[in-house]
Amino acid sequence: SLETINISSSVTTMGDAPFDGCYALKNIIVSNDNAKFKSIDGNLYDDEGKEFIRYAIGKTATEFSIPDGVTKVAKNAFKGNKNLKELTVCDTYTTAEQESFSYLDGITAITFEGLTAVADDMFYQSKNLENVNFNVSITEIGDSAFMGCESLTSIKIPASVTSIGKYAFMSCV
Q1: CB 87 within 8 A of CB 61
Q2: Which H, E and C letters describe the chain, residue by residue?
Q3: pTM higher than the cut 0.85
């Protein structure tokens, strides 16, 4: 039932997947005095805005664009969101974390502008994902990257890809 969380200035570290399973969470507020984290539009970032740590998964928005300047999306950052249908990832995002877009039940399309590699389990069990657009020259698709993406109808693997990991497309029926 948690809808809003206020993070005080004393919080200096966060583990993997903070607020995992908080399906009603719509707003993450960080104290202006916090030296390590900040909130933008109710989502959690590091203090410089370069790492996207957690999307408030209870939001009802169907589209989201990761803002310019973000270079990394944390592990499980979007895990469990059921409302997003389209996601655009800015061209400054280059570092993929494992499971960063896993279990996105509503997502049907995602576009990448700057990613260089698809991490292990990156889209794991995003069952309704249909279209993935790489507007960049990715070099690697990690292990189980699209495993369980049952609705994936097509994906164009760029000529720049030199490695596709084990089980990368397992259960993509």
Answers
A1: no
A2: CCCEEEECCCCCCCCCCCCCCCCCCCEEEECCCCCCEEEECCEEEECCCCEEEECCCCCCCCEEEECCCCCEECCCCCCCCCCCCEEEECCCCCEECCCCCCCCCCCCEEEECCCCEECCCCCCCCCCCCEEEECCCCCEECCCCCCCCCCCCEECCCCCCCEECCCCCCCCC
A3: yes
Among 89, 99, 76, 83, smallest CA distance to 148 is for 99
Rounded distance, CA 76 to CA 159, Å? 28
Q: Whole-number mean pLDDT of the chain?
A: 91
Residue range 52-92, pLDDT digits in tens = 999 999 999 999 999 999 999 999 999 888 899 888 888 88
Q: Using one digit for the tens of pLDDT, what is the confidence trace for 98-110?
A: 898 899 888 888 8
Instruction: Using alpha carbons, select from 31, 152, 142, 61 the residue that is nearest to residue 95.
Output: 142
Cα 24 from Cα 5, distance rounded (Å): 11
Q: How far apart are CA 114 and CA 117, in angstroms?
A: 9
Q: What's the pLDDT at 134? A: 80
Q: Which two tokens stand for residue 112?
A: 């990448």
